[in-house]
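Entry for fe (ii) ion complex. Fields follow.
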Amino acid sequence: MMKIGIYGGTFNPPHRGHVLAAASAVRELGLDRLIVMPAGTPPHKEVPAGNPDGAERLALARMAFASVDRAEVSDHEVASEEKDYTIDTLNWLSARCPGDELILITGGDMFRTLPGWKCGDEILRRFSVAALAREFEEEQELATLAETYRADYGATVYFPRAEVFPVSSTEIRRKLPQRLGKELLPEPVYTEIIRRRLYGAKPDFAWLREKAYAMLKPTRIPHVKGCEEEAVRLAAFWGEDTEEAAEAGILHDITKKLDLQGQLLLCRKYDIVIDALEARSDKLLHSKTGAAVAKHEFGVSDAVATAITWHTTGRPGMSRLEKILYLADYMEPTRDFEGLDELRRLCYEDLDRAMALGLAMSIGDLKARHKEIHPMTEKAMEYYSSGKDTTEC
Ligand SMILES: [Fe+2]
Ligand SMILES: [Fe+2]
């Protein structure tokens, strides 16, 4: 006879507390299997904007519990068209595992209300229950209650010694949009939440820097730090979103290290349309591939992705954030070349004139080095040197 634990919940999102509880249950109860069962979202129930649907919660749960020995995540309730009550799920499982002991893992609150659930008395009579207590006092209280369940229903109740990680999914959902909560989630879950920007999550800046710097040649890190710093300063000065500017600065060169072949692979992966000149220039491609990776792997907004796309060539009619990133990249504090002081001064006086000067300097430099100039850079130069752009600044 196998001992099979069943651990249900909405897992919205699954956090370190859930993982610790699951690992404790497996260890303390000596389980052969632990079936983690994310609850489904009944079809008639709307999922609030930014909240993952059942399939997404299932995917997060699979990431979260992958580290727990003997645990498997079931799609049974998520795949179900109707609301599953615990008794339904236990019956379904018991039909598949005849003769095995099924142990319903509960928290203290669930354990207290169990007799009031649909067929609660039947659950207590036919299946075992494990109650995870938060602290010693709660365990004492639940043990008293367990005596009643034993007397009334002949229930089998366990009290596994659970490691406690005091956090709730509600608290995490509140923290994520404030760039907080990273330490409360298993790393793969946090990464996926950021990638999809679920719950309106925004990345912890220290985490984002760490991820971005790991993708750079170490010699490029000071430039990227400088670019972030300068982009944030410019954004604050011009009334632009400083956090978007920071994300753009941190991520703008994330694919710079790749050679042409690596760049072209990313273009295929993300369906990036490129022209003939770009097809032979890793330098030009890193802007487009960087934008795609920033969007698909780090979930940046379209505004940030677009700023990264145009940070090398520029283009006519750039948004304010695009100009800020282009200029910050060009004149951040670690840069040092002739004419830079004038460009730095102009950046805090007139962004469009600064663009005209930056583009002229860039074209001059490319010509001096006999490099090809991208037509978009020439168009941008024409646009900004004509003084046409008065859109946002
Ligand atoms: Fe770049
Ligand atoms: Fe750069």
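NOTE: The longest helix spans residues 136-153.
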